[in-house]
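Below is how a single chain appears once it has passed through the pipeline. First comes the sequence as given, then the structure the pipeline wrote out for it. We keep one example in the README because the format questions we get most often are answered faster by looking than by reading.
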Amino acid sequence: MKLQTKLTLWFAALLLLVAGALLLALYMISGSAAEATAKTTLESTVSRYANEIEYEHGRLRDFKGRTYDDGAYLQVYSADGGTLMAGTDIFGISSMMPELLWKNESATVFRIETEEAGVYCYILWLSEEQNEKGRGGKLDTSSEMAFGEMLVSDETDADGVWVVGILPEDSMENVMSSVVRYACIGLPVFVLLAALGGWAIAGRSLRPLRKITESAREISDGHDLSRRIDIGRGRDETHELADTFNDMMGRLERSFDAERQFTSDASHELRTPTTVILAECEMAEKTPEDTEAVQESVAEIHKQARKMSELIGKLLSYTRLEQGTRRIDRERLDLGELAADICEEQRTVASRDITIECETEPEVYVDGDAALLISLVQNLITNAVKYGKDGGHVYVRVYKEKDNACVSVRDDGIGISEEDLDRIWNRFYQADHSRSDESRGVGLGLSLAQQIARLHGGRITACSKLGEGSEFIFSMPRT
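Resulting structure:
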């Protein structure tokens, strides 16, 4: 099932659940709502009716008001409740009126059952004083006095009338039934329209995802990693996904290009010593009697085989580090002592007249793999010796800088041009192509050193000036 359909169905189900809850709540409160509606209707109707009444000494005079208004029947009773002075006794409650006046307070709504139907009643005591004040204005209905209370009070001879409003229960039930019926019809229609709107909105929102899918399929089918997803500008999650996908494709493209270049460079570097070895072997076979020529061929074969072995070893090390198959055995190391030992070793094996000076601070401890860190520092010093000038110097310094342990390797050799400085970290890249094959390396030392630095949470930076020398600084967190 498509995501658009799933979202629409979930949305519609949620709306149906809410609509069902609303209908249930409406049904449950319909009774109290009917009573509240009856109270509001009767209060307003009886108040208007009372303002139209004119009486004096308990007798109506010139009453021309309505006895039916807004669905309610209106009546006027004498002070004792025994005489119907105005209105029609439709539901036969005139005989019940004295008892109702005894039981219920003025300005209240109550429900009774008659022979004809159930009705809501509202009674209001209207004294002659209230009649004078309320005429032409708003009647004060705040008085709450039952007929019995009136009889036992000091106002037994009070002059006034009872105004009664009667509202059939059926009319209220019909109103509430209509409300429920309309809700039962309207809410499903609303849910259906909302679901259709949700379908359209979901389709519009998911349209960029379809473009992403189509672009990914085209990239997969055509193997074109340069393709990118274009869904226009935006800042929502879909555009963020497209940007992330484009970034990923960019990294993949660069990675594949680098792998192709790596394969090409490795093939080239391995082909050169292989070609030399084959040529020297053929020469030795052709002149077996020439001992000197055979010795030269064997020496050349030995040199090229050693270079090939070094290249293969570094390729294997680099691949293991990059793929994470090389286990990192961390231990507490004094980086100063490690660098001093390497400098001492390089002074012994260095084939050039270069002075190596080492300066270290005490107790520069790090948590790292001893073999890898030795390889890193050794690569930096070897490069400095290899590209230094005869009679020159290599300065190695180990020091603390805030929370980092640093190793600086500086030389006063040929230096690196600004153009080549950013490319020295590339595999097989060599800035100085004029050197002899014997003095040149395989071009993997700095790439390997950089990979080791990253595995230890550190980094290597380089600065150089052509003809004046270079400085490489390795830094990593101290223990």
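The mean pLDDT is 77.

See the next section for the split statistics.
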